[in-house]
Each structure stands twice: as structure tokens, then as C-alpha cells.
Amino acid sequence: MNSDIIEGNWKQMVGEVQKRWGKFTNDQIAKVEGSRKKLSGMIQEQYGIGRDEAEKQVKEWEESRNRAA
Which CATH number covers residue 43? Predict the structure, then answer.
């Protein structure tokens, strides 16, 4: 899944993101605006992990969505 798909389907994905990364508030999720880069940065900040790990989590989440489709 590329960033265009995330941006285009963001409203449908919000619930999944909140379920996967439960520490996010609605306001935080709204600030992501479908940006993969913003999502990764927010994961880093909220969970205190490095960039590589945050990117890995986003990639795994994207892949799980692709398998479910």
C-alpha cells in the first residue's frame, strides 16, 4: 500500500489505526490526515520507539490490510 492509498482511504482506516495503536486520541489521529510519514512519526513519539521500528509497524499494518482485502 502506498501513501496515496492511505491518504485516499484515511477516513475508513481511522478505526483500524485507533485499534492497532490504542494510545492515540481522536485529535492525534485527525492530525495524521492520512500521511504515512505523520503516522510513523506519531507512533515514534507516542510509543517511544525509533524510526525504523515505527516504519516496520506501519508496513506490517499495511501488509495485514492487503492480505485481508
Answer: 1.10.1470.10
